[in-house]
Amino acid sequence: MTVSPSDLPPWVKWEKVTAHAETHSTRSLVASPRSTDECREVIEFATKRELSICPRGQGYSYGDIILNDDHVVLNLRGMDRILDWSPESGRIVAEPGATLGDLLFKSMPFNWTVNACPGGAGVTVGGAIANNIHGKDSWQTGNFGDSVVSVKLLIASGEILTIDRAEDRQLMEAVVAGMGLLGIVVEATLQLKKVPSPFIEVLFTPVKNTHGMIEHIEEARGKFDSFTGWADAFAKGPALGRGCVSSARWVDAPTAMSEERLAKSLEAPTKVFNLFPQDPTWFVLNKIFHPSLMRFANYFQYQAFKVSHALFSSKTPQMLFTEYNFLFNRLPGWPKLFRPYGYIEFQPMIPRECGVEAIEKIFKMCQRHGFPSLMCGVKAHKKDDYMLSYCGDGYSIGIDIHFKARDRDRIRRLGRELYEYVLDCGGITYLAKDLLVPRDLFERMYPRYKEFLEVKGRLDPSSLFRSDMYRRLLEPLPSL
Fold first, then answer.
1. Predicted confidence (pLDDT) at residue 1 exceeds the cutoff of 60
2. Half-sphere exposure (CA, 13 Å, Cβ side) for 85?
3. Spatial separation of the C-alpha atoms in residues 407 and 364, rounded to whole Å
C-alpha cells in the first residue's frame, strides 16, 4: 500500500535504511517510539495501512534481518531505560533500546557482568535477544539468551505477554533468536554473572597453523574464562590458519575502579585507535584498500604477535573487561572502509568433532574461489535449545569479503558451496550476519523453523511482524 508523506503522523518518516555491512539500502517508514503506548500506535498505524513492522535496535546486524523495504522499521533506540537493578541479586530490568554498555555501567562497580558480550558496547538488549548473540565466553556461559529470565512481548493484537523462562519454555525458545518476528520486546529481565572484580588479565599466544589454533583453544577451556582466535586466512601450506589466541581470566584486583575509567571504556569514540579522526582516516584507506593490502596486514600482524610473545610473553597488565572486550570501540565507523559497495560475512559454525580438517577445508575453499577472508575470527560455542539459535558444540569462523571489484555471482557460488559443506558437517550459519543462504539449506540447518512458524501463527496470525529476511527464508511460498 502506498503511503504519502502527508498521510504520516509526526513520529514516522520515510528514510533510507541500511544494515551494518552496507551491502544495499532500502526505503522504509521509520517509526521511533519512546514508550509501549507509542509502540501500540505504530501497530495500529501499520495494521490500518496493511504494512508490516520490523523491530530494530542500533542496526549492528549485517544483512536483511533488520531491513523491511517499503514497510515500517521500528527504531527502538529511544526506549533505553534501566527500569530496575539489584546489586545484591544481579537481576536487571531494561527496555529494548538499552545497550550492553548501559548494563555494564550499572553492574560492573558491583562485580557483575553480562554474559556473551560481542565486540561492540552499543548492541541493544532487544537486538541481543532477537539474535541470541554470542561472545568470547559463550563456550562456557552460553549465548545471551541464557541470561534472559523473562520478557514482556507486545504482540500484534496490542496485548502484552509476560513470558517467563520457567513457566513458558516453548515461547521463550521462540522469542530468543526469534529475529523480532513474534512481536516487540518492550521489557526484559536478565540475570547477570558474578565475577571476582571488573578486571581481567589477558594472554596473547601466537599459533603456527589451524592445528595449533584448535589445540590451544581446547587447552584454554580449563584455564581461562574466555578466549578468541584470530587466523590469517591468506596463509597457505603448513602455515594455513596461523594466527593468535587471546585468552582472558577474571582476577581479584585490589585496585579500585573509578567510574570515570569505566565510562571512558564504554563511550563511543570519535577517533580510530583514539588517535586518528575517523572520517579522514576511512576516506584515505577506502581509496587505497585492496585485498592484497590485507594480505600484508595479516602477515605483519602475525609477525608482530610472534615478536611480542618472544619479548614479553604477551601477557598484559590487568585491564578492565570493557577495555579488552569492546574491540570495535577502537574502530569507530569502520564500515566506511568498504563504501560504497559494502561487504559480506559468512559465519559458519562447525561441530567440534569436525574440527581442524573442516576449518582448513573452508580456508582452502575460500582461497580457491579467490576470496580469502580479510580478517578471520575463531570462537568456541556450546549448544542451547532456542528454535533458531546460532549454537552448537563447535567452532565459528568469520569470513569477511569486500564487494569492491568482485563478481557477486562468484561470491554466491562460493556461498552455496560453503553452505553445502557446512551442512554436510552438521553445521549452521549465523542468521544475524547472513545475506545469501538459500531457503532449502536454511530449512535443513534450522529444522525447528516449522515449530517457530507455528508459534508465530498463534501470536501473529496476520504476519504483522516481517523483515526482508523473513520474506527470503520463512514466508510461506504461494501455492501453484
1. no
2. 17
3. 19
